[in-house]
Write a structure and sequence with these properties.
The protein has helices at residues 7-23, 40-56, 71-83, 102-108, 120-127, 136-147, 167-176, 191-195, 241-244, 258-275; strands spanning 3-4, 30-36, 59-65, 89-92, 156-160, 180-184, 200-203, 221-224, 228-229, 235-236, 250-251. It is of the alpha/beta class. The longest helix has 18 residues, at 258-275. It starts with a strand and ends with a helix. Bound molecules: the ligand Nc1nc2c(c(=O)[nH]1)N[C@@H](CN(C=O)c1ccc(C(=O)N[C@@H](CCC(=O)O)C(=O)O)cc1)CN2. It catalyses: (6R)-5,10-methenyltetrahydrofolate + H2O = (6R)-10-formyltetrahydrofolate + H(+); (6R)-5,10-methylene-5,6,7,8-tetrahydrofolate + NADP(+) = (6R)-5,10-methenyltetrahydrofolate + NADPH.
């Protein structure tokens, strides 16, 4: 059986270090999280962000807006926080309701406060090797590689999924770490033939248990970003953990893998912004 990457433990260790850093800061870092509507999963993630911020000593605020809020109202709220020196980070929880143009909202956030790393300015900086703000999930995965001594240099990494928040930034970060990167997605013909070539396999497609052991090369490092509900209501990843753990050399579980690192890296970028 492969080794399990304990994202919860790594996140706790990093958060303890962050708490020490924040304790020594005169002006505390501030983070505002804006959530629109009642999506239950988003509500949970936002609550967890607040709990983590409080634990570390970050001053945090959650703005809960009704599903009916207009795009203009949301933009003007963001503009208020852009001017507010008490907040070093602004985050709008995704997904947004259908009537709101996500691109316009992300563009409204001052890039200097964009702790999610989703603003096109920060995306461009990351793509040109000048990263300042990095999307938190890919950033957390890179920290996991570091902590578990996974060297990407010269390895074949396969990213399954091409979203703006995980797949595309992950592709860039792995490329910058000198991996040869292949991106596969829903239109890839014979996905298993592609993933079986991977030394490092990162999966973010939102399809419960899509990846079974027939998709994985023996000894591969497998990172599961998926967060799905099984028909029984259980939280499951995109990877069939029970099968794949016997083939992989290192593997993340769901829950307790990538998720806790996403929130941790958000705190990291908020603190760094406050230190600037
Ligand atoms: N503005 C953003 N929106 C979204 C992001 C993001 O990075 N920025 N990512 C996801 C959701 N997300 C954070 O927002 C997130 C998802 C899951 C977890 C997590 O810790 N999961 C736990 C399990 C939690 C549970 O029991 O339900 C785990 O994996 O152990 C953290 C953050 C989409 N939106």
């Amino acid at each position: 059986m492969g080794e399990i990457i304990d994202g919860r433990k790594l996140a706790d260790e990093m958060q303890a270090n962050m708490a020490e850093t924040v304790a020594s800061m005169v002006k505390k870092p501030g983070l505002v999280v804006i959530i629109v509507g009642e999506n239950p999963a988003s509500q949970t993630y936002v609550r967890n962000k607040e709990k983590t911020a409080v634990k570390i000593g970050i001053h945090s605020k959650i703005d809960r807006l009704p599903e009916t809020v207009s795009e203009d109202e949301l933009v003007s709220l963001i503009e208020t926080y852009n001017q507010d020196d008490n907040f070093h980070g602004i985050l709008v929880q995704l997904p947004l309701p259908k009537h709101i143009d996500e691109d316009r909202i992300l563009l409204a956030i001052d890039p200097r406060k964009d702790v999610d790393g989703f603003h096109p300015f920060n995306v461009g900086k990351m793509m040109t090797g000048q990263a300042e703000m990095i999307p938190c999930t890919p950033y957390g995965i890179m920290k996991m590689f570091e902590a578990y001594n996974v060297d990407l240099n010269g390895k074949h990494a396969v990213m399954v999924g091409r979203s703006n928040i995980v797949g595309k930034p992950m592709m860039h970060l792995m490329l910058d770490a000198n991996a040869t990167v292949t991106v596969a997605h829903s239109r890839t013909v014979d996905l298993a033939a592609v993933t079986k070539e991977a030394d490092i396999l990162v999966v973010a497609v939102g399809q419960g248990h899509l990846i079974d052991k027939s998709y994985v090369k023996p000894g591969a490092v497998v990172i599961d970003v998926g967060m799905n509900r099984s028909p029984e209501g259980k939280l499951i990843g995109d990877v069939n953990f029970e099968e794949v753990k016997d083939v992989a050399s290192l593997i993340t579980p769901v829950p307790g893998g990538v998720g806790p690192m996403t929130i941790t890296m958000l705190m990291d970028q908020t603190i760094r912004n406050a230190q600037k």
